[in-house]
Write a structure and sequence with these properties.
Layout lengths: L11 E9 L4 E8 L15 E2 L7 H5 L10 E2 L9 H9 L5 E2 L2
Parallel strand pairs: 4-5
Antiparallel strand pairs: 1-2, 3-4
């Protein structure tokens, strides 16, 4: 499960799926960090690579390099993930934090 699919208000850090073959079911299993607060916990959700590539295939084949790779994003609910943020990120060489 990608990070953007986790329940950050419940401090869920990982989710995987177990196949129950006898019943023909798929059971979700969540890994949750026990915390008293139900608010966003910035210390357990570091910035991670986003889903957009840093380079197009033509740019990569021509030998272009943008350093660290694609734009990074956080898991904070309500973070901006609009087209304007993406254009700004591309203009900065994808070293800016995408989604803040």
């Amino acid at each position: 499960m990608p990070k953007h699919g986790l329940d950050v208000s419940a401090c869920e850090v990982f989710r995987f799926y177990k196949l129950v073959t006898l019943k023909g079911l798929i059971e979700p299993i969540s890994m949750i960090v026990p915390r008293r607060s139900e608010t966003y916990q910035e210390d357990i959700y570091p910035m991670t690579p986003g889903t957009e590539p840093a380079l197009t295939p033509d740019e990569w084949l021509s030998g272009m390099n943008r350093g660290s790779g694609g734009c990074v994003r956080g898991a904070k609910p309500g973070a901006r993930r609009d087209a304007q943020s993406w254009v700004r990120c591309r203009a900065l060489g994808c070293d800016a934090e995408y989604g803040k």
